[in-house]
Write a sequence for this structure.
């Protein structure tokens, strides 16, 4: 029932975000609801209004994949939104084999990360846990290896560490996206105790998290662009790719690089790599040098 309640809330949130004109419906001057009406979504999805209403009310229903696909199309959901609906309506059943309490990367993956001395790279696991990093990723972001085990979580660090707010130029956008990614992961693994603990901690400690979490947005990590103001090398930008590791769909490899043609960012990354190789502090929270001193 809890998942179906979540299912209904997700539908209501998405319905409120779509305007009739967005889906080819006439818009009247006086509408009593924000976004689409229930009967309009039902019409677009090809189901009865009564059935769709019961879905939104979180009643104990089990919509078929065909119905989920139809509703996803009606609400113009992306792949992540459609997957979230599927997770909530048909949660994965626990298997006899227990999931290890601690996720670990294969030694060969760590060796590969360490070989990339000019590109920040790291692996995230469930709920955004940082499973492995290379030296340049630690210099660019933070030394997760030095943190207590339960603090090695990218979402937690971005939302709660002041150094992260200073580091990301577009902090609010990055942080809200991490919340949406966590929401997708939580829907896929509703019985995960550590996810529940993380959500509880962030709810208590981060007002922004509570607001974004209540919006029920979901996002899957794929690729993108980030802007930094690094305390050691100054402003730089990166493009990144996110790749699911073969053999473990719950581990995602992130590789950063300077955008093509962005000489300033490429030089900043090279300078950071050189500084780190020379024994500089790897945490952005306590740099021992400034950009001016590096250039002197």
């Amino acid at each position: 029932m809890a998942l179906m309640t979540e299912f209904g809330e997700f539908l209501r949130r998405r319905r409120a975000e779509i305007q009739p004109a967005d889906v080819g419906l006439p818009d009247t001057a006086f509408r009593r609801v924000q976004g689409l009406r229930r009967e309009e979504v039902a019409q677009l999805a090809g189901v009865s209004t009564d059935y769709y209403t019961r879905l939104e009310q979180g009643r104990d229903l089990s919509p078929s994949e065909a119905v989920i696909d139809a509703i996803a199309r009606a609400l113009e959901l992306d792949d992540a939104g459609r997957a979230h609906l599927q997770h909530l309506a048909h949660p994965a059943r626990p298997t006899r084999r227990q999931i290890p309490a601690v996720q670990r990367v294969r030694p060969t993956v760590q060796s590969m990360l360490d070989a990339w001395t000019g590109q920040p790279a790291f692996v995230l696991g469930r709920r955004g846990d940082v499973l492995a990093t290379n030296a340049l990723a630690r210099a660019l972001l933070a030394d997760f290896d030095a943190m207590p085990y339960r603090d090695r979580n990218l979402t937690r660090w971005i939302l709660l560490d002041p150094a992260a707010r200073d580091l990301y130029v577009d902090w609010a956008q990055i942080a809200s996206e991490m919340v949406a990614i966590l929401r997708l992961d939580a829907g896929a693994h509703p019985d995960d105790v550590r996810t529940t603990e993380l959500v509880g901690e962030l709810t208590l400690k981060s007002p922004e998290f509570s607001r974004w979490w209540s919006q029920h947005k979901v996002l899957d990590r794929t690729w993108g662009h980030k802007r930094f103001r690094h305390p050691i090398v100054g402003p730089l930008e990166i493009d990144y790719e996110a790749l699911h590791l073969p053999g473990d769909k719950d581990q995602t490899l992130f590789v950063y690089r300077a955008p093509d043609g962005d000489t300033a960012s490429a030089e900043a990354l090279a300078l950071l790599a050189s500084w780190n190789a020379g024994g500089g502090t790897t945490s952005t929270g306590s740099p021992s040098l400034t950009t001016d001193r590096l250039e002197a």
